[in-house]
Amino acid sequence: MQHFLEKASAMYYSGTPILSDAEFDALARLYNYEEVGHTVTDGIPHLYKMYSLQKVFDLNAVESSTSPMVRTPKLDGAAVSLQYVNGHFAQALTRGDGNLGRDITLKLEELVPATISTIDKCQITGEVVAPDTIPNSRNFAAGSLNLKDFNEFRARCSYLRFVAYDIQGVEYERLSEAMNSLAQEGFDTITHFDAAGYPTDGEVFRVDSYDAFYKMGYTAHHPRGAFALKEQKAGVTTELLDVVWQVGKSGVVSPVAILRPVEVGDALVSRATLHNIEYIRSLGLEIGCQVEVIRSGEIIPRIVRRVDIEKNSS
């Protein structure tokens, strides 16, 4: 399963995810997988490392902070960094592995201000998002940044927004102050942006004071002064009756689980996506075993684990 999650992580950051966030989170928690991003060997260094956020599913499990915190929506798009030099937009990079990213400067020129009043060097980090009226909007946003045809990207620009959520290299006392300043420079910012109509994946809690935030430090993967609160959808257990193979519109053949019908949310579910044979093997699925099913995005039924596997191995 470690190998499969590494592959899923790499596909996610390349803009072609093979798992939904709910599936990935469920599997990562089950198998204690904590790696973030994927190794990049041919990218360009970010001015400042782009850390991920610690994911929590219960506020009671979070160590309380004495410093005031800013609470914002966690947008579900493609994270990027912008570099401004002496007030001029100089470079944009995909997140990559947090250390190195891929150059997307020409594309982001279409989405961000060309100049700002800040002097010296600074890095602005944020999310490129598309409205959730577009099917698979997260894939649409990330896929747009991967397009080789610039004219095709430009045709999509009216659907894309860059929303800033941090700035480094410029001294501000508080994150809220920094976001107010960027909003005045013409940016959409996470504290001002109306996320209604855009895909979100939980909420972000971050210490407002930059001094307190930096004093709290970082782990190898995430800052200690911020975290993402995510809702873990409860799964429902049922029996795997059979696996059939179907041909999709693109001609790809993929497995589908036939389940003993069960209520998941407000829907009766009897079939679920299984992705590919590697996914089936990773979960140790067999005909007749018990499985946990969720509805990814409240729509698509998916199997996230084999429920009786521990019982069988004991």
Strand order in the sheet with the most strands: 5-4-7-8-9
- Label the CATH architecture of the largest domain: 2-Layer Sandwich
Kindly report the oligomeric state of this protein. single chain
- On the 0-100 scale, what is the average pLDDT? 84
Shape: globular
What is the fourth-level CATH superfamily of the largest domain?
A: DNA ligase/mRNA capping enzyme
The CATH class of the largest domain: Alpha Beta
What structural class do the secondary elements suggest? alpha+beta
Low-confidence stretches: none
Helix percentage: 10-25%
Instruction: Provide the β-strand percentage band.
Output: 25-35%
CATH fold type of the largest domain: D-amino Acid Aminotransferase, Chain A, domain 1
Observed structural traits:
2 domains, alpha+beta, globular, 5-stranded mixed sheet, about 325 residues
Structural description of this entry:
- With 314 residues, the chain is α+β, with helices and mostly antiparallel strands.
- It has two domains: 44-229, 2-Layer Sandwich (D-amino Acid Aminotransferase, Chain A, domain 1), CATH 3.30.470.30; 233-313, Nucleic acid-binding proteins (OB fold (Dihydrolipoamide Acetyltransferase, E2P), Beta Barrel), CATH 2.40.50.
- It has helices at 2-13, 21-30, 105-108, 137-146, 150-156, 175-184, 210-216, 277-283, 309-313, and strands spanning 44-45, 54-56, 69-75, 78-85, 88-94, 100-101, 121-129, 161-168, 188-189, 200-207, 226-229, 236-247, 253-264, 267-273, 290-296, 300-306.
- Strands 5-4-7-8-9 form a five-stranded mixed sheet. Strands 14-13-12-15-16 form a five-stranded antiparallel sheet, with helices on one face.
- A hairpin with a 5-residue loop joins strand 12 (236-247) and strand 13 (253-264).
- The longest helix has 12 residues, at 2-13.
- The two termini are 19 Å apart.
- The model has no long low-confidence stretch (mean pLDDT 84).
